[in-house]
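Example (one chain per record):
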Amino acid sequence: MDALLAGARNVLDACRAELAKRVIGQREMIDGLFMALIARGHILLEGVPGLAKTLAVKSLAEITGLDFKRIQFTPDLLPADVTGTLVWEQSLGKFSVRRGPVFANVILADEINRAPAKVQSALLEAMEEYQVTIGEESYPLPNPFFVLATQNPIEHEGTYTLPEAELDRFLLKLLVRYPSPEEELRILKPLNSKAPLEPILGASQLESLRAAADAVRIDDKIAEYIVSVVAATRPAATKSAAARSPSADAAAAGRAGREGLYRYISFGASPRASIALYRCCRILALFDGRPFVTPEDVKTAALPVLRHRIVLSYEAEADGLDPDAVVSRILAFVPVP
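Predicted structure:
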């Protein structure tokens, strides 16, 4: 196990060093990209323009040696422009399949909220079933298949809110933040951003990382804690969650916290969030070189896993609360094992 963890750390350190040739800072985003790639999940990146979202995704595709396609979502985009369509071949007298750009290993769905819901939903089958239906036939997508979607949080004119069913397909929602002053000073210095990166994360290295993550131990108490955190996002689970509290005082505190918090939540997270949190906690332990998961791993992974899976009420918006603030309050009153 120690050798497996050490090998995984060496691979991850080499990947970070390779990406640092182009992307300065943004450690949270870079670790999130690796986390989703290891966990076979998809990512929603949210940040203002100019924060190296597209550059980071392109660079990740280069160091993995995977096939990369970028789809610019616009209001006039059609579902067939993403998935592909049937084309009539006059010389053959029949329809043939013209595959869309979604048939690649790494897909960058740039400004996904600029396309109508019909186009956004074209990715649903691809992201969940890893296949695309064109006409009456279904076609498998390449393996691995990794979708990274970006959206601008400050510009709302001409945009369409992503439906909850599609949001739930994303393993993580990462908030890409402004760099620190020190990092921005380094950004001012010229970088050789066009130099090719070494493809150091091939299929065998990726499988070794996944094997190392699967070998990380997670105690039953930690698994119960994960379920409790996700269940605490659901207003209907108030009584059952409080009943499982380890003491009367903790139960009373939990009830008080929930009663004050649930006016801000319209809908909570589904069991898919529990599965995602379970996977991500093990990968966070792998990043630290630990063979076991701690409650701190759960707290760290809870924000990117849950922030896009809870639907806030109008009262939350009126009080200036965002999903991160609500998840942080939930973590504060759920008993830690």
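Caption: Confidence is low (pLDDT under 50) at residues 239-243, 245-253.
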